[in-house]
Amino acid sequence: MIFDWLFGKALHTVFGKRGDGLASFRYPPISSFGVKTKPFSFYSDGTVLNGEVAYPTGKPLGLIVFFHGLGAGYTAYSQEIAFYASQGYLVYAYDYHGCMTSLGRDMIDLGHPLIDQKAFFAFLDKQIEAKGLTRYSIGHSWGGYLSSVTLAFPKYQIEKAISFAGFLDIPSIILESAPSLKKMKGKIGKYFAKRYGAVAGQSVIEVARISQKPLLYIQSDEDNMVPYADNFVKLQSAGLPNVKTVVAQGRGHQPYWKNDSYHYFQQINEQYKPGSYNRDPHFVIDYRKLQQDDPIIMKSTIDFLKLG
């Protein structure tokens, strides 16, 4: 009980703020990449969450739910969402509690999006345009974890999941920022399981083993946010036949980017310092250079969805 109280207070210190991205960065709408979209809203635990659905030009090949990472919202992935719509998929994306377009005073903690996820799928089940479509999930980082664990819930009807550089479990996300708590990993897992259900205390490896559904995990071997050895290598070493892994060589935490885009992103952080009050006001970001996805990596995700 004492641990739960102290740990809860510590989480509030870290996540007791909104995830609204960086004011110095541009988050373009999905429609700016040439696809038709429509906004939607739903309630999660009494709070209004907002999102968009992106439409393919013809009859949908299936439905994708896209989960965003920590710090911003789904418009940080507008280009990727538009890509999947252009490939024939109906794509739903939304902001979690306390993030970007959604309401909520703060993000609460890393487990709360599991509540938002449950509310979203209840909303999705009522959408006429979504009925009868095979469902897939895709996410990045925090969203990569959330995408993977959809496989644990049969009622979500997710047939395949893709994780771009997602953590394998919630405690690992905590320990990456606070390695001094390593000996308490078990307690941290129990804390989240108690608050958000058994899956919140499980590893993606356990989820994949139990569900036996296909999971594609893509990560860079030089990821500076999610440790490659503790996630990619660990998942690959589990030897699960339903799990496929792909390495994006020589880039950072966005394995779907081209190497040139990754290196330009490094330049932006070093010269412009977008998260600092002392950033260079004269630095102009060339978003055309930044918004370049790797066609080989992106094709591998489409091939995975279409396989079988």
Describe the fold and architecture.
- This protein is an alpha/beta fold.
- It has 2 domains: 272 residues, 3-Layer(aba) Sandwich (Rossmann fold), CATH 3.40.50.1820; 32 residues, no CATH class.
- The chain contains 11 helices and 8 strands.
- The protein has an 8-stranded mixed beta sheet with strand order 1-2-4-3-5-6-7-8, sandwiched between helices.
- A hairpin with a 2-residue loop joins strand 1 and strand 2.
- The protein is globular.
- The chain starts with a helix and ends with a helix.
List the helices and strands and how they pair.
Elements: H1 2-15, E1 36-44, E2 47-55, E3 62-67, H2 78-86, E4 89-94, H3 113-124, E5 135-140, H4 142-149, E6 158-164, H5 170-177, H6 185-196, H7 204-211, E7 215-220, H8 228-237, E8 243-248, H9 259-272, H10 287-290, H11 295-306
Parallel strand pairs: 3-4, 3-5, 5-6, 6-7, 7-8
Antiparallel strand pairs: 1-2, 2-4
Helix pairs in contact: 5-6
Q: Treating each run of at least 4 consecutive H or I residues as one helix, how many helices?
A: 11
Tell me how many strands there are.
Answer: 8
CATH architecture of the largest domain: 3-Layer(aba) Sandwich
Helix/strand/pairing category:
alpha/beta
- Estimate percent helicity: 25-40%
What is the average of the pLDDT values? 93
Count of discrete domains: 2
Radius of gyration using CA atoms only: 19 Å
What fraction of the residues are assigned to beta strands by DSSP? 15-25%
